[in-house]
Amino acid sequence: MAKKIFVNLPVADVPAATAFYEAIGFEKHALFSNAQGSAMIWSETIHVMLLGLDFYRTFTGKEIIDAKRQSGALFALAFDSRAEVDAFTKAALAAGGRELHEPEDMGFMYSRAFEDPDGHGYGPFYMDMAAAEQTMAGGAVEPVAA
């Protein structure tokens, strides 16, 4: 069985959040969705659970951040081309997302950044691994320390 990730996000309005994620290509899994939350499928291995604030509170005793004012996590999503990165970002902006900065092009990597209506940050990107390996090996870019 493939390993999967289920990201749980607190949202102010479950139907509005669901509509946003459907607009950017996620599919709602009806079996695991109700008024308290929506199970959204991005791929066979990546799912996002949109949980209403009251329901989210049942999973933690911690204060829930206001993702519009505080950062709790940033989600980088890999795509197969620059065009797919642009199309995904364009869909997010059309559905009510907010662009965080202009596109960034490092030659071997192209990325965009946006927030969903609740303030959760996404960084869709495309990376040409062969070009990245060549660039990193040549010392043009400092490797990220582990």
UniProtKB/TrEMBL annotation:
PROSITE patterns: VOC (PS51819). InterPro entries: Glyas_Bleomycin-R_OHBP_Dase, Glyas_Fos-R_dOase_dom, VOC_core. Residues 3-127 form the VOC domain. SUPFAM superfamilies: Glyoxalase/Bleomycin resistance protein/Dihydroxybiphenyl dioxygenase. This is VOC family protein. It comes from Sphingomonas natans.
